[in-house]
Each structure stands twice: as C-alpha cells, then as structure tokens.
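Milestone M4 deliverable, item 7.
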Amino acid sequence: MDNSGSKKTCSESVRDFFTSAKFLIYMGHALSTWGDRMWNFAVAVFLVELYGNSLLLSAVYGLVVAGSVLLLGAIIGNWVDRNPRLKVAQTSLLVQNSCVIVCGILLMVVFQFKEQLVELYNGWILTTCYILVITIANIANLASTATSITIQRDWVVVVAGQDSSKLADMNATVRIIDQLTNILAPMLVGQIMSFGSHFIGCGFISVWNLCSMCLEYMLLWKVYQKTPALAVKAGQKEQQQELKQLSTPKELENGQSPEELSHPLMNETAAVDKPDSPKRHGLCHQVTEPLRMFRDGWVAYYNQNIFFAGMSLAFLYMTVLGFDCITTGYAYTQGLNGSVLSLLMGASAISGICGTVAFTWIRKKCGLIRTGFISGVAQLSCLMLCVVSVFAPGSPFDLSVSPFKDLYTHLMGEKELPEADHILTGILTAGNTTTAAPTEVMPQLQSYLSVSLLFAGVIAARVGLWSFDLTVTQLIQENVIESERGVINGVQNSMNYLLDLLHFIMVILAPNPEAFGLLVIISVSFVAMGHIMYFGFAFKNLGTRLFLCCSPEQKVETVESPSLPTTV
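Output delivered:
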C-alpha cells in the first residue's frame, strides 16, 4: 500500500515551517531586536557627540532608563495582564517605533542646526531638545520592555502550547537571535555613521524603524491568526466562570464584573468598598492606584514559589564581568586595542550561542531545574579564572591605593586627567568597532597574563550564564499563572535593573584601575550568592534527587502551582 499520499513532501514541510507561527515570531523578534540594538548603540554615541564628547547626557539617559523600569516595571506588567494580547503587542510596537522615529528626526534637526540652536534664548532651545530626546527615548525603552514581556514571556508560551521541549527550543532560538543582533546591528550602524555622518545615521535608523514597524505589525497579526489560543487568557476565563457561579446576585447587580473579582491585583478593596463609594472612585484613590499596583506587583512576585530562582538571576546583574562599558574601558587601560576587543566580543557571542545550545541538550538529559544547577556550577567555575587574574602578574590591583582616589581628584577639580576619564574614554570606543582607540599611548604592561585570564574567565562563563538565564526564564514561564505573567516579569525586569544600577554605583565609587580587582571579587561574590539562592530553590523542589541526573521519564520536577498572592 502506498503511504506517500499521507506523508508531507520536503517542499511542503519547508513551506509549513516558514509559514508557522513559530517562525513568524522569530522573524518579528529579529526585526524588533535589530532595531533596538541599533538604537541603543546609536543614541549613546549621539548624546556624547552632542554634548561635546562628555558622558553627562549618556549618564543621565542611563539613569533615567534604569530608574523608570525599576519604578514602572510592575505597573507595565500589570497593564500587560489586564489587556488583550493583540492590543498590548500592537500598542507597544507602535509607541516604541514611533518614539524612535520622532527621536531620530529631532536628532537630525539638532545635528543640522546645532550652532543656530545654541544662540537662541541662551541655549535653552538646545537644552529643551536634549530633554525631549532623553524623555522620548525613555518612553521608547518602556514600550520595548512591554513588548519583551508580552512576546518573549507570554506569546512564546502560548505558541509552544503544553510542549516543554518546544518552549525550550523557542527560548533558545530567541536568545541566539539576541546574541547575533547584539553584535551585527551596532556594526552596521557604526559603519554608516563612520562613512557617512551622524545625520545620516539618524535618518537611517528612523527609516528602518518605520519599515520595521509595518512588517512587525503584519507579522504579529499573522501569528495571532494562526494561534487562536492567543485570543483568550485561559487563567482569567476559568476564574471568571467560577466567580460567576460563586458571586451572589447582589454583587452582580452592584456592577462588580467577574474580571474585577478574578484579578488578584484589581480586587484589593472589592470586598469592603462598593463601586459607588467615594473611596473607590475618589481622586485620592485614583492618584494612589499606581502605588498600589507597584506594591501589589512586588507582593505577588514575593509570593511566587520561583521567587528565589528569579532573585538568583537578578543577582547576576551585579557584576563588572561582562562585555559592557566598564570591562571594555578597563581593557583599554590594560593595553588592549579595539581590534583585540572586537575579537573578544565575537568570541563572547559564540560562547553565548554555545550556552543556548547546551541548555536545550542538558534540559533533555537532566531536566529543567538540574540544568540551572549545572549551569551555575559551570559559570562559577569559569569565574574563578577572573579571581585568579586579580593576583596574577600584570594586574594593577593595589589595596594600598585608595579606591576613592580618582573620585576625590575629580571632585576637587585637579587639572590632571584622572584615570577614571581614561576608562570612560575607552567606554566611548569600546562599543563601536569602527571608532579608533584613544590617541593617548597606554603604558606598556610587563605581562598580559592578568588581563588574559580575566577575559578567558568572562568568555568561558558565558556558556553557563546564558544557559542559566534560559533556565530561570522557562521556570517563570511554566510556573507563573497566565493572569500574572506580565506583572511578575515586569517586577523581574525591575529587579534586574536594580542590581544593574548597584553595579554602576559600585564603579562610580571605585573607578580607578587599581580597584578593579576589588570589583571583580565583589562581582564573583554576588554571582555566588545568586547561585546559592538557586541551589536552595532547587534542593527544596528536588531534594537529594537534585544530584541524580536521571532520565526525563524517571524524574519528577514539577514545581507546585503558585497560589494567588494575598493583597495587603
């Protein structure tokens, strides 16, 4: 009997894949991430260029962005939970891209007419433009946060269905896209700005976001059509059905909808306040509603049984051991040039991709919770090289030098350029592979062993880092009820930004290269504390079975479903 009719041909399988909701999500995420990476890289360069090669505007922008997400993360997540998925995704997409387009146009005007703007009203027009750019760019970042929560933390889960392996594969693919765009997108816009101008760079980014917005909007609609489950938030629907049966006729007559009664972050005073009471509809109540959302979001996060897993991930942000502006700036003071750093960044990206591949393989062999434990051990082991580098030949580490030396020198207004400014000069060129290294000649080091060990540890640790990140991400996706997915991920973003802010404050307090070794030790300590918290979470759920890498059929790793948080 011929069964060829029941089997799909190769061309049909390929066609089905490229038209599937999964592939369309990948495409939309690639477009969104590419635009984000170009803009995040370019806006920092633009702000430095506009303010006379000073980092002031960049520092203000970074502080505003981090502070906004820290304060508004729970509120953004709550908004994601309370509104239909398509409305949230489309609104976030339109706001984000529109803000970037407006910012690009505004920056083009400033670059073109900066000299004239300086003379108008003693420069207040130019200052107003700076404030507008930072404000609008911050709104774009908040909209990007909402997009990330709704697509990466919610839509991906729904498209994967109940298939944990498919969810893991989708998470890994999304992370690989992040890694690739993080390297390639800044290179593209950097080349455009180098061979063209900042004016052309602004125009290119604005046109890109306009085109990308239209394509992403279409892709979102296609994914929504192909996945009917996205139209219904199952958790809320089930709760509404139960509440319709449990609610008294009087409550329904008074206008209390099942939605209000079912949502844990909306029914704070439903039991004691009637809808028409002054307290519920008064001005004071409306003004304080964001504060209650903020409080309830953090309470809900604390009551999750994956609380310590989320905290462990946040603690990994309190580190200077990454390819951010701090570490690359330090590398310049140790004699590494831009060419070497670009190669190291490429090796870091490859290491991160290996981590995402390792995650899917280890999860299939050992299970999700054990994957996080193994990844944590791997990351900590690699970071020991960074600790060794502090005491290796060539290290500038010197406890006899006050870590506050450069800060004091800068505040006292000494004319000599402090080492901190050398580091910050490196920061300006570290993210841009097309920009030449500082013209200042760095002192020749006696040995490169210390800095080599440092970056060897950082690069090798990326395998464990990204595997661990994916583990915690999937734990949150699988163990947070659907109606709270947005607010919990919003608070998680806030925690990440909080620890990230602390690491920048730590660098500000001790900016000189002699103190960098101390920052390395503190960073490794925070990473260790994060993994200790995860170990406690894993041991609580698996017990001694944590150390038995049994087959997927034999293991039982189900984390108990979290109960709804009790509002205070």
